[in-house]
Write a structure and sequence with these properties.
heterodimer, A: 268 residues, alpha/beta, 7-stranded mixed sheet, 6-stranded antiparallel β-barrel, 20% helix, 34% strand, B: 153 residues, alpha+beta, 4-stranded antiparallel sheet, 4 helices, 8 strands, globular
C-alpha cells in the first residue's frame, strides 16, 4: 500500500508544539471514508512516516492534530498550506459509537488524546437526541496546553457536560485544578448504562477506567485508544505488538478488559 | 424546606449513615454561604470546621512567599473539604477560597469530635468516610506528581 499525495489545505498552530493539519486528496486519489478512532500514516517525503489519529473532517478533508516529538512530527510541524504529504489509510478499529446510542456517553481525554475523540464528540453533537447524558472530561498539563479551546462553548451549547481540568494552574485560570480522574467523581451520568471512551497517556486511562468502575461503568463498556510504535499499520512488522495484540490492526481502539492486564506489565 | 439531616443524608459522603446518626451530625452543622474570593479557611488558623460543598467551587491553595498563591486543587459541589479539624494541632495547613458563589454545610469540628468520642460507632462511620476522601486526595496527588502529560510521555 503506497502513500498517496494529499495537499495541506491549512496548518493551525494549537500550542507551541502541537499543530493541526487539514489535508485534501490530490486529483485522482481515492479518499476512503474514515470512522472516528481510526488513524492515517502520514509520510513526509525524504524524512519518514508516522501514524496520526484522525481528528475530524470528512473523507475528502481530513484533520490531523500532531504533537512534535520526533524528527518526522517536527517536519510535519513545518508544513504549511500548499505543501504535499503522503498518506496511507485509514487504518485500525473505530470507537463503537453506535453501541452508545440510547445510553449515556462519557468521553475522557488527556492532553493530545482529545484529538481522536473529537470526532466522537462531534458525532454526538450532530445526533444529540440519539444519546442520553453526554459528558466530556478533559485534562491537560497547563491551561495553555489545552487543545481546541474555541469549541468548548459550542459543545456546551449542544448539552454536552464539558469539564476541563489542569494539573498545574497558572495566571488567571479559574477552572478546575487536579487530575482528570477527579472530574469523573463530579460528572452526572448513569454508570449502569454509560459507554465510556478514553484516550490519553496510559497511566491516565488506567486510573480513569478504575474510577469509572467505581462509578458503576462495567469494564467491557469502557473503551481505550492505544498508542505504540506503529510503523507498517498492516500487522506485518510487529513493532506495535503488545502481548497478543497488534495495536495497528487489532486496535487502536480496544475494550478495556483486553488492555487492562497488558499495560500493567513493565516488560511489554 | 428540608431539614439539615435530610440535606446531608442526600450527600454521598454520608451514604450508609443511619437516620439517628445523621440527626446527631446535623446538630453540629449549619448552612452557610461564601462570596467569590472569600476564604473558607486560611493557613495557620485554628481548624474548627469542615465543609460539605453544595454549590460552587473552592480553590485549595498555598501562599508561596514571592510567588503568590499556588493552587494545587479545586473542590466542587458534592465534595467535602477539610480534615485538619480531626487531628492535632487542629490547624489549617492550606487556604480554601471561594471561586464563585459557594453554598456549604459547615460543621463544627469541636462539637463533632465530642459526639464521636461519646459514640464510637458514629466516630468509626465518620472516620471511614473521611478515610475515603483522604485516599482519593492521596491518589490524585500522586498522579499529579507523575506529570502524565509531560514532554517525555
Amino acid at each position: 500500500m503506497l502513500p498517496q499525495p494529499w495537499r495541506v489545505a491549512s496548518a493551525v498552530r494549537e500550542t507551541p508544539d502541537i499543530v493541526t493539519l487539514e489535508v485534501t486528496p490530490e486529483a485522482g486519489v481515492d479518499a476512503a471514508a474514515w470512522q472516528p478512532g481510526q488513524f492515517n500514516m502520514l509520510y513526509v517525503f525524504g524524512v519518514g512516516e508516522v501514524p496520526v489519529s484522525i481528528a475530524g473532517g470528512t473523507s475528502g478533508r481530513v484533520l490531523h492534530t500532531i504533537r512534535e516529538v520526533g524528527h518526522v512530527t517536527r517536519a510535519l510541524g513545518t508544513l504549511g498550506a500548499g505543501d504535499v504529504v503522503g498518506l496511507r489509510g485509514p487504518f485500525g478499529t473505530p470507537w463503537p459509537i453506535a453501541a452508545a446510542r440510547g445510553a449515556d456517553i462519557l468521553v475522557a481525554a488527556g492532553g493530545i488524546g482529545l484529538a481522536p475523540l473529537r470526532p466522537v464528540i462531534e458525532t454526538v453533537c450532530r445526533e444529540r437526541n440519539a444519546y442520553g447524558a453526554a459528558v466530556v472530561l478533559y485534562g491537560a498539563r497547563m491551561p495553555a496546553d489545552q487543545l481546541y479551546p474555541d469549541v468548548y462553548d459550542d459543545w456546551r451549547a449542544q448539552d454536552i457536560q464539558f469539564e476541563a481540568t489542569v494539573d498545574h494552574a497558572d495566571g488567571d485560570w479559574r477552572g478546575n485544578v487536579g487530575v482528570v480522574t477527579t472530574l469523573v467523581r463530579r460528572a452526572r451520568f448513569d454508570g449502569a448504562s454509560a459507554q465510556a471512551f478514553l484516550c490519553g497517556p496510559e497511566i491516565m486511562m488506567r486510573f480513569t477506567a478504575q474510577e469509572l468502575e467505581r462509578a458503576g461503568v462495567a469494564p467491557d463498556r469502557t473503551w481505550v485508544s492505544m498508542e505504540r510504535n506503529m510503523q507498517c499499520a498492516l500487522g506485518f512488522c510487529g513493532h506495535c505488538q503488545l502481548g497478543p495484540e497488534f495495536i495497528c490492526m487489532d486496535g487502536p481502539v480496544f475494550a478495556w478488559p483486553r488492555m487492562r492486564d497488558l499495560i500493567a506489565v513493565r516488560e511489554l | 424546606m428540608k431539614k439539615l439531616d435530610e440535606v446531608i443524608g442526600e450527600h454521598p459522603f454520608f451514604a450508609g449513615f443511619t437516620h439517628a446518626q445523621l440527626e446527631l451530625i446535623a446538630g453540629c452543622g449549619q448552612l452557610a454561604q461564601r462570596k467569590p474570593g472569600e476564604f473558607l479557611f486560611k493557613s495557620g488558623q485554628a481548624a474548627q470546621h469542615f465543609f460539605l460543598l453544595r454549590r460552587g467551587s473552592v480553590a485549595l491553595e498555598l501562599d508561596v512567599p514571592g510567588r503568590g498563591p499556588f493552587r494545587f486543587g479545586t473542590a466542587s459541589a458534592g465534595e467535602v473539604v477539610g480534615w485538619s479539624w480531626l487531628f492535632p494541632p487542629h490547624q489549617w495547613q492550606f487556604d480554601g477560597r471561594a471561586l464563585d458563589e459557594v453554598g456549604v454545610v459547615q460543621f463544627d469540628g469541636v462539637c463533632l469530635r465530642g459526639k464521636c468520642d461519646a459514640d464510637p460507632v458514629l466516630g468509626y462511620a465518620l472516620m471511614k468516610s473521611f478515610a475515603g476522601v483522604l485516599v482519593d486526595r492521596f491518589l490524585d496527588t500522586r498522579l499529579q506528581l507523575v506529570d502524565v502529560y509531560g514532554r517525555s510521555s
